[in-house]
Prior knowledge:
Layout: H1 8-37, E1 42-43, E2 49-52, E3 55-58, E4 68-73, H2 85-91, H3 94-103, E5 106-112, H4 116-126, E6 132-134, H5 140-143, E7 155-158, E8 161-164, E9 172-178, E10 184-190, H6 200-205
Parallel strand pairs: 4-5, 5-6
Antiparallel strand pairs: 1-10, 2-3, 4-9, 7-8, 9-10
Amino acid sequence: MMGKIASREEWLKARTSLLAAEKEFTHQRDALSAKRRAMPWVKIDKDYVFDAPTGPVKLSDLFAGRSQLVVYHFMFAPEAEIGCKSCSFWADHFDGAIPHLNARDTSFVAISRGPIEKLQRQAKRLGWKFPWVSSGKTTFNYDFAVSFEPDANGEALYNYEKQKVPFKDLQGVSIFVKDADGAIYHAYSTYGRGQDILNGAYNILDMTPKGRDEDELPYPMAWVKLHDEYEQA
C-alpha cells in the first residue's frame, strides 16, 4: 500500500484542511453527546437478580454505591462454551477504564446469559478483572433487546428495528441511573456500530493509513481472535 507522496508544504496544506473537518466533527459529537444526556429516563420496575461469583446480586447492587451504571451486554449464550470473540475484543479495553469511571461516580459491569461458571472461566483465561454477572435466570437480556426469540422469518427487534438476527444473543451497551431514593432508571442503550467508541484499538487503527483494513474480509472482524490466540512475534 502506498499513499500519495507530497512535499512537506503540500502535506501541511492537506493536514490543515483535514483539521478543520476534524474540529467540525468534534463539535458535532459534543452536540450529539448533549442530546444523549438530555434523553428521558424510564423507571425500572423489575427487581432483577443476577448470579455473581459471590452469589446473587440485585441490579441496585451493581451500582456499588455510585449513581451511574454502564452495562456491557456481552454476547454469551447459555449453551456456548466461550463468549463472542468480538465482545472479547471490546472487553480487552474495560479493566483500565474502570478506575477512571469510578472516579466520576460511574460503575461498570458486563452481563451475559451464560452461567457464571463459564463467565469466570473465560475471565480467568484472558486475565479480565471487570465485574461480570449472569442474567440467565432473568428476563434482563430480553427486556433490553440483546436476546431474542426470533419469529418464523428469523426476525426480531434489535437496534430499534425489526431485522434478521443471526444469533439468539447479540451485544450492546446500556446506561442506568440511581437516584438518592434508590429508584433505578434506564437512560440509554446503543447497539451495532454505536459501540465503536468503546473500542480503543479500532479508534487507533482509524488513524492509520490502512485503517481497519477489513474491506476484503468475508465480514468485519473476521480477523479478530481471543487475545491469547494471536501468534506471538
